[in-house]
Every structure is written in C-alpha cells, then in structure tokens.
Amino acid sequence: MNDSVYGIDLGTTYSAIARISDLGAAEVVPNFEGDSTTPSVVYFEGPGSVIVGAEAKRTALSDPDSACLLVKRHMGTEYPQEFRGETYSPEAISAIILKELVNAANNTTGAVIDKVVITVPAYFGVQERESTRQAGVIAGLDVVGIVTEPVAAALSIGARSDQAETIMVYDLGGGTFDTTIMETREGAVEVIAVDGNRKLGGADWDDALVDLIIGKFVAAADLGDEDPRYDEEFMLDLRLEAEDAKKSLSRRESVTLRLSFDGTKAMVEVTREEFEAATRHLLAQTIEISRRTVELGTTKRPQLSIDRVLLVGGSSRMPAVKAALKNELGWEAQDTEFDLAVAKGAAIYGQAAVDEVLRTGDEAAPVDVAADAPGRPFLPGGSASLTVKNALSRSVGIKFARDENDAEGYISFFAHSNDAIPAVPEPITALTLSEGQTSVELGLYEQAGERESEALADNRFLKDAVLALPKPMPRQSPIEIAIRISGEGLVTVTTTDPASGASVDLEASVSVLTEEQVEQETAKVSTLLSRS
Ligand code: AMP
C-alpha cells in the first residue's frame, strides 16, 4: 500500500500540486515545464489529444474555440462544452487537469501516487464539492478528502505555533473574494466565520484599468468618429495588456502602454495612484466584507480579536490591499506564498488523513492517537494529530407549504451558514397537509444567493424523496424529520412516520452527474492522450 498523497489546489486560473517530502515538510512539485503552478487551461488539439497548462494557454489565444478556460466557475452545474465533436462535463475537464498534475508530479518524483486531497473555495456548496470529488474519480484518483482553500492555507502557514491564535485569511483571487476567520492551535484548526463575494476578483480590477486606459487613449489619439471599444479584437488584446500592466503596477509607480488602433498610435501612461483611485470602490467592498466577517465571528466568539491576517490569492499582491487593511481596520497583513500555500496545506491535510491521525468530528470512534505518540513534522507545531472543524458554507433547509393551497411553498432553514459542523440540528416535526394523505414529499434546498431567503427562487434544489405512508393519514398527522450534517457539509435527512415507523433517508451528497455518467466520462477521459 502506498501511503503518500498529493494535495491539489485546483484553481480557477492556476493549479498547483504538493506532497510531504521525505524530510516531513510540505513541498510543491513542479510540472513538466519546471513551473510550480500550471494554468488551469485545456486545449483540445485533435480527436483524442489534449494539451494542459502553459502551452494550452498560449495556443488558446490563436484558437479560442478549442480551449477551455475557467472551468471551475461551472463546477456543480450542468454545463457541457463541446470540443472537436465530443462533449465534456465540467467534471471531465477538471479531471483532465487533475490527471495532468498528478502525471507530471509522479514523473518528477518517480513515485506512483494516486491518492489526493483537492481544495475547494470556502463558499462551495454541497453540489460543487461533490462535483470536485467526481472530477477526481473521473481522473482515476482516490480522493481521500476535500478541504477548503482557507483551511489549507492556514494549515501550511497559519497554524504554526503552539499558542492559540485567531487568524483571518483574506483571499482575493482572479474571480472571487473570500474571507475566513479561524482559531488555530497546535494541530487544530476551527473555522469560525466565512464570507465573501463570488463575483469580485482580479478581473474587476482589469476591467477598471481597461476603462482608464481606453479613456486616455481616446483623449490622446485622433480617432475621429471611431470608437475602439466596439472592436472586439482590439479589446481582447487590451484586456491581456491591462492584466500585465496591473501586475507591473504592483511593483512600479507607473506603466506606459503603446496602443495602436486603425493605424493611429499613441502612448498611454497610467500611474499607480490613478489605478488605485479607479478601483477604490472595489477594494472598499473587500474591506466591508472583512468587517462583516469579524462581526459574524463576534456573534460566535464575543471576545474575538484577530491575531494575524494572511494574504492569499494573486490579487492580494496589489499594495493597496495591505494599505487598506492597515488604514481601515488597523491590521498588519502578512504576505504568504500567494499561489502555493493552498496546495501545501492540502498535502498536510491529506497526509494526516492517510496516516489516520485526522479528526473532523465525523469519526464513529475517536481517533486513537496515544498521548505520547511521536509528533509528525509535517503537522502544525509538530503535533501528533490534526483536528479540523469546519463551518457550513450555505444555509440548508426543507421546503414546506403554508397550507393546502400554497403550491409554491417556502424554505424553512434547519442549519445556517457559518454553523459549526459536524452538527445534528434539532429534529423537526412537520404535519401532513390534507385529509387521507398517503405520502409525504421532502425537498432539500441550499441557499443560492449571498443571503438566506425563504423564497424558492433564491435557493438551489438539491434532492427530494417521497415517504409512502402505509395507510391514509388524518390531516395534521406528525412526521418526524431528523438531520445530520457531516464535517464536510454533507447533509442526511431521515423522515419518519411515527405511527408506522416507516422512514426514508435522503442524502444530499448530490452530484450533477449520475454514476453511469461518471463511468462514461471516465472512459472518455482515459482515452485522451496528453502531450506535455
Ligand atoms: P489566483 O486565482 O489566486 O491565482 O489569482 C489570480 C489573479 O491574481 C489574477 O487576476 C491575476 O491578474 C492576479 N495577480 C497575479 N499577480 C498579480 C500581481 N503581481 N499584482 C496584481 N494582481 C496579480
């Protein structure tokens, strides 16, 4: 039995893979090209042949129709995409990336490892987590765990001392923003509060910079009636240039771009000050969310005070981020290995899982780690075991009707975002609606928007089940609903008719793909050849 495991940060724009070295430290394994990170881009070169990573990203520029970028945004949804006459689910495309990462890592290390832990954003709900797990299965991997990105970041950089600390992870990536407050102590991480905005990220800063640049270009160049904003190719090129310019502005006070449109050329200079002024409203949103996360944390821990703030995600490199955290919240935020911390933390989590010293609160029996067991160098503080306690990312509820005529219904939540998990919420007693009812239908829903809302449209349907009643029941007969939520956020609901003892289980480890589809996608992906 191989007892090694890879930790994989399956990112929206970049991915990375890590493992625990022979010396017991987490290390990132470079890919075939020697890079620590691999662009999460798949290029379908021809029937049965794909390219993954930097070369795929380069090739995608000249042939965008055969390339798949940003697939992570579609995880947990039905979003088939067709390339070279074949249809692929988001899970299958993610599987191609995972396979490439593992093959490259095995090639570099000379190992044959197929066990992995994959990270997901803290805001991922039940369906997206299950999709991620299925991507691993389609890639032929043994997924020993799914861990959230901030917990992974905390494991590799945060939870280091033997003192208890309260850590805030500020994660501003390419397309999303997340904040997480965690309590850490030797060998233990507990999530206290999670918040964020799924639609706020580096791409918004790019947009603002594009606007700034184009305004200056139009003012400087004599373009007559022509407006370059309507020229698709010009705008595509400008977006790429703007992202590079943005990165330069993290190091330099100003950048100069040479632009050309329809034969007219002009130089455009943008200073960091101008860029920061044009994006102040975006940064303000992250500060507001950070503040809100602290308020949320304070409701659970009245004495909460943040000891350390860790910057994660490529966009946290912008100097304005650190300055705003200092000026607005009084925090001295700390740089991390922005792109590598998450993969390393996943490796730590994975090694603890395969070594059977990981506790998530779900274990049937307590993990037996002797008090005098030797410490493990890869674990925070060199402790002997690792405890990770999560919080629920989204509220979960059941659909109820107000009365017989309420066809639409509403969602009654039994667990709320940020509740500590695993959890066994209070059982619910429901009442049958009509006289002579012979079955009860149970629909399980998850909060879809940023806030909890009773309206059906604001929630995402997860799964339903029907409990057949052995005989017609009088109106208002009680039905018992018992709920359990695992440490990974999977929900199990048991509905029982107390009169007959009949019951039905509903497990919301819901996935978009059926088992049969997973098999089909596995077969499809396994025949692809990757040219690296
Ligand atoms: P991630 O998803 O964490 O890899 O973050 C990618 C995002 O970080 C993209 O929007 C990049 O443009 C942005 N990014 C990477 N490096 C820098 C930098 N030096 N300054 C500003 N943004 C950056």
TrEMBL record:
GO molecular function per UniProt: ATP binding; ATP-dependent protein folding chaperone
UniProt keyword DNA-binding present: no
Keyword Zinc: no
Gene3D superfamilies: 3.30.420.40, Actin, Chain A, domain 4 (3.90.640.10), Substrate Binding Domain Of DNAk, Chain A, domain 1 (2.60.34.10)
Residues making up the signal peptide according to the UniProt record: none
InterPro entries per the UniProt record, alphabetical: ATPase_NBD, Heat_shock_70_CS, HSP70_peptide-bd_sf, Hsp_70_fam
Keywords of this entry: ATP-binding, Chaperone, Nucleotide-binding, Phosphoprotein, Stress response
Pfam assignment, any one: HSP70
Superkingdom field: Bacteria
Similarity field: Belongs to the heat shock protein 70 family.
Protein name, per record: Molecular chaperone DnaK
Species assigned in the record: Microbacterium testaceum
